[in-house]
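Dear colleagues,

I hope this message finds you well. In preparation for our joint manuscript, I am sending the Methyltransferase-like protein 23 isoform X2 (Nicotiana tabacum) sequence together with its predicted structure, so that both groups work from identical material. I would be grateful if you could confirm receipt.
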Amino acid sequence: MSCIHLLLKSNKSIVFYFFPFTNQRGKKKSNWEVPNGGMEVNGDDGEPAAKSPAEEEMTTFSRHNFGNSGNTDDGFSVTIIENMKEEYGLFVWPCSIVLAEYIWQQKSRFTGATVVELGAGTSLPGLVAAKVGAVVTLTDDSSRVEVVTHMRRQCDLNDIKCKIRGLTWGVWDAQTFSLCPNIILGADVLYDSCAFDDLFATVTFLLQNCPSSVFITTYHNRRCRDDPTPEGNVSSDCFKPCVVGIT
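The corresponding structure tokens are as follows:
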């Protein structure tokens, strides 16, 4: 694990920790390896059916295993409903798997913590955090009603209690002001440079609202040649999982 420590002019520090990650081809052995990319796509296994033939065609279920999922004392699995319709964005991107695995590996850090996931979407990292004992609030763009509804379905499917909120980056309301997390999560939230200002304004507010908090994100370098799809393989160089904290 490598580390970069920057001291800002405001005397606040930002620390980036970079972790090894193996791609789905398994060329590199590391603690970040997740069997089958951490995903098992289920068939007729009793999962709830989609509501319509058109929706059913685009809907799949994936099961993500952490630790020894057969032993509830040493692991668990999380089932995710995915909608492969591109404009929904409701599928599990590799960055979410990396962040979820980080949470599992660092579960002692998350137990009892107050966690907010930004841009949660399918919510895999937030659900894993809740599984290891965190008090979790899942958030996504308040204008995307189908995504907020989808987050509720994920919680119901996995019998996990999380708060669900619509939170649009850069928009200030009472719900945003009330948040005071120990840990802020964001998987692949740096995908659109046009949203950077609003994202970092929101993150900065949350960090300052709870001075001991940290922002944990996984970043995918989309300038890599080996660009991923939800099912595809990716180069290990495309991932920069990092912890960013202001103290």
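For the figure legend, we might mention the following. The chain has a mean pLDDT of 75. The chain has one domain: 2-24+92-245.

With kind regards,
E.M.
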